[in-house]
Give the backbone structure.
Amino acid sequence: MSDGDRGAAEAVARPATRGPARATRRCLAALALLAVACGDATDRRVPPADAPELVLLVTVDTLRADRLGAYGSDAGLTPRLDALAARALVFDRAYAPASFTLPSVAGVLTGRYPEELGIRDNESGVPGGVATLAGALRDAGFRTGAVVSNYVLRAPSGTARGFDRFDDDFTERESTRGWPERTAARTTDAALAVLDALLDDDAPALLWVHYQDPHGPYTPADEARAAQLPRYADDPAVPRDLPLRDDPLGLGGIPDYQAVDGRTDAAWYLAGYDAEVAATDAAIGALLDGVAARVPADATVTLFTADHGEGLGEDDYWFAHGELLTDPLVAVPLLLAAPGVAPGRRADVASLVDVVPTLLGLAGVDAPDALTGRDLLAPGATSAPARAYLATLGGARTPRVALVEGDHKFVLTLEGSIWRGALFERRPGEPERAVPSGDLGPAMRKALRDLRQRYRGAAETRQELSPEELEALRALGYTGRGDDP
Ligand SMILES: [Zn+2]
């Protein structure tokens, strides 16, 4: 807990909806203008008269875009998210700025790339002087609250900055090692309790909820796993006897933090991952139902995304993330449902650093500083050149950086002392594939190098960690500090 109360204990009953709130705010705005006109200086912050009642930001850890029906899956794992997608603007080509938690989430919360913040790994901290989504909305008169269920995102990481209420109460222990976590159903309960506390004030609210469940180890209910198993058990392409690694890397085998009961059959883990996704979808459905019972749909802005994906055997990378920048690790779902935003699909490249300017725009609040991300709903946004910058930072043994632009991704990999480049093509719904570089490769290599120069150089803020905290962070699949690219 950093600034603000833990909200979970302060739940109060709410009426079904809060229809008059916006009208009240318009009156307050008029009164404030009148006070200024009469020379009565006031520092009372009044939110924009047309601000939504609620900005709801939902993020899921380790959720690949292609597990959603809305992104092409036919496994039926995500009926609730698919229903949200049906009334949302769906971004087909959204990218996380990194393939592990803290750098990516920091990008979501600040609108800047992790290197601009000096963030290298899960032991870094979001620096104090940087503007955040929560801080900007709070300064504009919003009440702000968050519920996070990944230990990496607890308040000392700096993610709590700008929130009036920040619930990082890890009520459960992960089954294989006993590290702190909170499962999806309880995350929803905590989120609705925080929302009730926020709505107890006649002001618009920001609620951020981060779910953890698809992150390994995959430990769904037995029957939930069994329901997913047939899809993999008879597939000859699914290995039946993977090596068990003795470290957190997933290159060529099962990482130590994922291994359950010494099992080596990939199908069992793949089914476990899918079952965790399905359980998270159900919990998010309960969250959306709870929100709808409290705030009218036409007064709610909902943005849904994930912090990164997961390797599920592509490139012989198993049940891990962080090491690569392939699409299974960095292509994330991005759904935006808001009043006045027509449902549909967008094919231009989006980055998670675009979340802050987009949500501030929908809230009618000016960005406090120039942000790196772009407002995805700005006039001309669909035709403007768009790109996403990606980096493995300290989460990988082999450093990589990448640029996504148009239908292509250019990846630089540090081999020895040489950065080697490769060009990949990827179209929505298709796996990326290496293609001849032609003129495009050198052009993207130069653009990528320019971006690296621009974004690098910020001093790192390190969290002050106890030995126990350090051990817990490293147990969460963290792979150690790689060479500095
Ligand atoms: Zn994560």
Remarks:
- Residues 1-20, 26-44, 481-485 have pLDDT under 50 and may be disordered.
